[in-house]
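User: Earlier you gave me the apo prediction for this protein. Now I'd like the version with flavin-adenine dinucleotide bound, so I can compare the two side by side. Same sequence as before, with the ligand SMILES added.
Assistant: Got it. Here's the input I'm using:
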Amino acid sequence: MAEAYDIIVIGAGLCGLAAASALAERARVLVLEREPQPGYHATGRGTAVMQFNQGSQVVQALTRASLAELSGHYREIEDLPLLAPRGLVRVARADQLDQLHRFFDTAGPKPLCRWLDSEEVRLWVPILRPGYAAAGVLEAEVRDIHVGRLMALHQARMEARGARLVCGAEVTTLLRRTNAWQVASEAGTYQAPVVINAAGAWAGQVGAMAGASPLSLTPKRRTALSLSAPPGVDVAGLPMVADIDACFFLKSENGRFKGTPGDDTPCLPSDARPAPLDVAKGVDRLMAAFDLKIGQPDAVWAGLRTFAADGNPVCGFDPRAQGFFWLAGQGETGIQTAPALSRIAADLVEGRIAPAGRHPAVPGLDLADLAPERLSASFA
Ligand SMILES: Cc1cc2nc3c(=O)[nH]c(=O)nc-3n(C[C@H](O)[C@H](O)[C@H](O)COP(=O)(O)OP(=O)(O)OC[C@H]3O[C@@H](n4cnc5c(N)ncnc54)[C@H](O)[C@@H]3O)c2cc1C
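And here is the structure of the complex with flavin-adenine dinucleotide:
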C-alpha cells in the first residue's frame, strides 16, 4: 500500500522546498529528491544575488514582491540575515555605450540606479583596467543572498509543520489512478491527489512522465570560475561587476573572486560540467577587463538555468493532467523570486486564487503570465 499524502513535491531545490514549507501549514506534504542532499543542482551553483532590473517585467514584479520576506529575520536560522549589501556596476566599453543607455533608460528606481562616467566607474571598481570602461550604471539596491540560510529556513519550516523530505528518491513513474497520483521512486511508492513538478532542469522530463502538456523549457548551461585575489588587492566591499552584454560577471566572495563568461548554452538536463572552451573564454574576458593576473582558476563548475521562451516562470496546474502542478522555468532568478512564487504556488494549489488576474501580494503581475496555458503554441 503506497504511503498517502495530500501533496508530493518532486525536487528539493529552493523552489521545491519553499513551496513545500508554504503548503505544509495546511496539508500533508512529501518532498522527493533524487540526490543525497537538497540543493545539489541549480540552487547550489548560482551567483546568489538579488537583481531588481533582471529578467522580464513579470520576473521583476516577483523579485520586488520577494524583498520583504528576504529582508526578515527568522528564529529557525537564529535571526541571521538572508541578504547582505552588494551593489552592481554594469560596465560598457565605448562601442557598447548604446546598450548601456538603453538599459539605463528603463532601469529603476532612480537615484538608486545611477549613471557613472568612466572616472566614477574606476572609483567604484579600481581593479578595472584603466581605459576599459567608457561608462557604467550603478545599481545600489543589488544584494547578496545567503542561499544556504534560505534553504535551511525552508527545510526547518517544512519539517516543523510536519512535511517530510526523502533524498535518494528519484521519481521514475507517475500514474494517475482515480483521484490520486501514484508516484514510484527509488525510495518507495507514494500517492497524493496533487503532484508539484519542481524538478528544475528535469521539469520537462517529469512533465512527460505524467503525460502533461509538452511545455518547451530549455536548460542553459552557465560556467563559473573561482579565482584567488592577487596579493594586495582588497576585495572586501567591491560591488559585483557585469558587462552590459552579459559577456562576463565578477563578484568577490570570502576574499576570492567568482567569475563567469556569461555562457548560455542550451543542453539536456544533467549534472552540468563546464566545457574547457567556456573556462578559457571566462579567463580571457576577465583578463581583458580587469587589471588582475588571472592564472588557472582554482575551481570551475557549471549549473543549468531553465527558461520558458518568454522568460517567465511556469506556475500553475496543467490543463491536461489533473492534479499536476508546474513550478518550473525560473531561469536565472529562481532564488530571488522564490518567496513570491512559492506564495502564489501555495495559493493556486489550495484554490484560494484564480489562475488569471491579479495577486494581492504581487503588484503589476497578471497570473495568466505564469500559467502553463500561455505556452500553448508549443502544445502538440
Ligand atoms: C550559474 C548560475 C547562477 C545563478 N545566479 C542566480 C542569482 O544570482 N539569483 C537568482 O535568483 N538565481 C540565480 N540562478 C538561478 C537559480 O539558481 C535557479 O533559478 C533556482 O535554483 C532553481 O531552483 P529549482 O529548485 O527550480 O531547481 P534545482 O535547484 O535544480 O532543483 C531541482 C531538483 O529536482 C531534482 N529532481 C529532478 N528530477 C527529479 C526526479 N525525477 N525525482 C526526484 N528529484 C528530481 C534535482 O535533483 C534537483 O535537486 C543561477 C543559476 C545558475 C546555474
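For your comparison, keep in mind: Residues 10-16, 32-35, 40-43, 45-49, 170-171, 198-202, 206, 222, 224, 303-305, 330-336 surround flavin-adenine dinucleotide (CB under 6 Å).
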